[in-house]
Amino acid sequence: LTVCGLGLMAQLKIGYTNADYILSLMPEAKQIESDLTTYETQLQNQLKSKYEEFQAKAADYQQNAASMIDAVRVDKENELQNMQAEIQQFEQQAQQSLATKRNQLISPAYEKIGTAIEQVAKENGYSHVFSSGAPGLSVLLYAREEDNISNLVLKKMGIDPPAEGTEE
Question: DSSP string spanning 100-143?
């Protein structure tokens, strides 16, 4: 039993890395962030436009409600309620759309990182590579710094790693 245990230990070489750290150093990270910011601004501008239209109609209603005939007042109230519901629905759809856009932009980068991690692991004899550095998501509770393969992955991707001790 002891001999098998030692043989198994000899075959294990465990490393770890932080994919978000690697992503932050990739050249495309700035473009991804820029594209997301632009998209988010477009959504915010659309929402602002809808909200301003709602505010203008609400102000008009408040100013003129007393002089409106009942049928017109009820129609305006329904219109305002519908506009408010549309604004809330647009906010929800915008959040979902932003998350979808983020995934579309970031997925290719993570696939590239995953490929580089796999290559580094195979080239350097790692049997397992764990994720670290994501608060609440890290599966690594303790590891030696010499088992951190982030710089090897960066080099595999053609990115010069920063000076030692700057990884988060």
Answer: HHHHHHHHHHHHHHHHHHHHHHHHTT-SEEEE-S-TTT---S--
